[in-house]
Amino acid sequence: MTLLVLALPLVGSIVLALWPRNPDLSPRIFGTAIAAATLVAALFLLPGLRTDDTGEAPGAALNPRHEVDLPWLEVIDVRLHLGVDGISVPLILLTALLTLLGMVHNWVERPDRPALFCAMVLLLEVGALGTFMALDLVVFFAAFEVVLIPMYFLIARWGGPGGAAAALKFAVYTLTGSAALLIGLVFIYASTGTFDLVELSERGGGGISTAVQLAAFGALFVGFAVKSPLWPLHTWLPPAHTEAPTVGSVLLAGVQLKMGTYGLVRIGLPVLPEGARALAPLLAVLAVTGIVVAALACYTQNDLKRLIAYSSVGHMGFVLLGISTLTAVGINAALLANVAHGLITGLLFFLVGAVKSRFHTGQLDELGSGLWTRLPRLGFALVFACVASLGLPGLAGFWGEAMAVYASLHPAAGLSRPLYAVLAVVAAVGAAMTAVYFLRLLRRLVVGPVTVTTAPAQHHKVRAVDLWAIERVVYIPLLLLTLALGLYPALALGLTEGPVAALVQAVAIG
Amino acid sequence: MHLLYPLIVSAGLFAIGLYGLLARRNLVLVLMSVELLLAAVSLNLVAFDVWLTDVLRSGQVLTLMVIAIAAAEVGLGLAIVLQLFRQRATSSIDDLDTLTEPR
Amino acid sequence: MTVQSISWAPLAPVLVLVGGLVLVLLADLVLPLPGRRSVLPGVSALACLGAAGSAAWLGQSEATRGTFCSAPGSATGSAQDSRCSYVLGQTAVFLTVVLCLAAAAVLVLALAQLRADVEGVTPAGEYCLVLLSATIGAVIVAGSRDLITLVVGLETLTVPMYAAVAFRRGSTAGTEAALTFLVVSVTSTALMLLGIGFLYGLTGTMHLDGLAEALSTAGGVGDLAVSDLAVVLLLAGLAFKVAAVPFHVWAPSTYQGAPIPVAAYLSSVSKAGGIAGLIAVLPAVSAGSPIAMTWIALLAAVSMTVGNLVAMRQRHLVRLLAWSGIAQTGYLLVGLSVLSGRSDQAESGAGATLAYLAIYLLMTVGAFACIAAIGPTARSADPAGQGGSLGEGPSIEALRGLAGAHPRIAAALALFLIGLAGLPPALLGLFGKVVVVRAAFTGDAGWLGIFVALNTVIAFVYYLRVAGMLFTRTGVISEVGISSAIEARPAQSGSTASVSSATGVLVAALAVLAIVAGFWPDLIIGAAPLLAPFGAG
Predict the structure, then answer these.
(1) What is the pTM of this model?
(2) Quick check: is C266 in a domain?
(3) How far, in Å, are A209, A403, A466, C396 from residue A52 at the CA level?
């Protein structure tokens, strides 16, 4: 089943790349069909999981289900080892859902060369799914790299005017992180002799000396920090988001950013626990700094997409804070915040894309105000998304942030309690600051006198039409899931709790 | 005869050849210097072979090969210099400057 | 007087190539001019494929593998085994197959070039003769176990290339490139022979096994400073062949001035021949002292860095590939520099280099094939650029928006460049980089692994620049350029189509192989000998 989930978008991508230029065949229909089939196949991954997940090997750090273990490149100890557990399945479902919604969005904003566009999106999905399913370090690395080229082309070829430069910055940053990641992974291999994640998690850093663990975790840290993104390695994100097309931004925020934090939880913590323990305070400090800096940067932003990009940095700061506490509560908080961020920020970028395509600008001072009055449905959706993003209780965003702050007050044994307490306070203040900039955004754009349709500096005719049916199809699932996750977080926590407990127990961190 | 005599002669020939290679402008003289280098090396090999009284005569065998290689190289080299002269009426190594790094 | 015995079976690849050579010479005398242009390269390519096949068959069979052997217990043979000058061992079989396949691909490019060459500026028979002779030299180097055989093989590989580079009669760039190549090459040969002379004088033998024995005996000649000097000189000659920094000066000019198939040959088979020589020589000369390994490691690190940094400035595509080739040499040398590391991983280093070599050859020949396919169109589209009159191949600016006119060639070129960079979707290139970094880390040379990873990032910038240039939305300049190119060459329109067909088939085949091998890397990497899982071997 895991192979099917991975193979479907891969085959779809190859077929679309070779799509004949015949106007009768619609590549968008084919792409949407493939994405839908992938989502359905991914849903079939759920039944095999058990929520208590004690598994056949009690006490094992990693109990994968739907395992696939085929020889791939035996001469260098690489096997095609795939599997899922409660930590990866929510992210897999999120990826499949966002890709499907992105494909449907192709009817809202029609890109030129649709076959190639859909091929790039599906290739991105393959990379993300591969990362979440990989149980072998080289497979993980290969999948991690796969997303780079499609995203580069999405930003450079289909993006805004500054696309080429933003895409290059994105690519070079990500590749530098990947280089560090490769060094860390091979370093682990050289010390242990295996690339297999299940085996490495079993050993829990047993055969690796502390110095090597520290160095390897440092390298992995840099690699995942660029991807997450962690302040101060985040500067590639705002230009990339600003220039990317809507679907590109959604997938970048909703899927790609998850890969970094997932990597930390899947590889960094179980395989190198001593290194993790040593560098966790640094991670926490940088994460919280990121929350505050991002909030401050958001306050001054004029460009909608840049503002949401910086808010992403802030949200991922909470995720990384949760991971850095090295406790079950913290890691659960991180995973929940991950999923919530994917849903909410994905929705936000879709909506901002809708605003941009109607008013031909994404600048707050060029847009007027009174969006809710003029376009009530779009306005409502925007309000909902912003409010969810700032962490209103009852919606998905609240749980991740609150639990992360709580976990920071009770960090793992061996970590400095005073430091983490201070960081918890600062993070809470940062959460409050998030509210400030989102409410400012809402005040400027959504409420107030209706100037949005007569705002100055418009060279194109404004199509101030409220949400079309197709757009509703795209946004409503995200809205509903955000609400559902907010009211019933056990939807996600139920899946993650077991594996996280096993993880934390087996490596005796918390 | 002591091994040192042919080795010193060979070293001297090699040095002269190297100087010629680096300092001479005319391509034909450069090729001559290259011949000197190869002759020095051949002398070296034969001297070592005799000194070692090698049963397989490896040094002398390699020298025969080097003679053949040198002949082929210089033959080709002169042919290409001739082509250069026909194309550009020059045989100076300083005039080979069109394929340099872009500024 | 001892005479070496000759066994003909291991010489099968060489004999097939020589047979092909003779056939080409005879056909050149007999065939009329138009037929010559297609038949001769075709026969040569078939000869190379035959040689590859015979080497593969020999690799499977139980026939004797050594030839030109001296009897055991004789003055030069060791007490137990006979010492053979040419042995077709596992490594040699792999190298022969890979070299001959690459040579066959280059000969297909030569076929396309000759077919398009209606004025007859390039003599067909001599062209094929030269490329085949060089291939024979490469195959000899791959199997050599003896310094004399090595020298003969290397020279057979190099000397015909002087002629090949200068072959286009009207081209001043070609003549200049050939002369640069020749002067630098003979100097390095002389230096290498000097080193060989000293090694011979010190150890008394030319055979590599005997050298290893003599250099590794404690307190023997291996401790003398002169032996270190000799080893360094020998390696300098080989380093020139692979274009490692600082022996790389000839490469960019030579590639730029040579015809595209010859540049492809130089960057593929010629370089691989140099690597084959290094693989043969390094285990022997590094037996005594660590200087050889340290030296190779330094060459690797410097080549990577300098090659990538200078490549970023290049505006001419073939010159960029030359400098990137210098960087790739650095990656190839990484595996060789850990040969005497941890004993259980020692030979894995050579295996990593062999695997990466196969991948590199595929990607490089593919990239040059794409350049050959787009050559005529792009050159005319850039009248003001540096390409065109100066050397073969397009300037990078001329590639802008090429995906509009030639989508498949552009996609293939992007694939090969990304493969050289080491990223998906050219998964094969990624595996190559993983193999090299793994060899570095398991051979206790982690710093080299870090160099490789960082250089991948630097290299990516210029590979991506070219690949991205292909896919930019077509600008006005290139549209005008391409249409004017089509108008300006009405008489050649037929020949332009025929250039595309042979080259197009080659590009498609190589691209398909690259993608398939990306999902099934065992096909190429698994075939490389000496590559072993951790803890085995």
Answers:
(1) 0.90
(2) no
(3) 33, 21, 46, 59
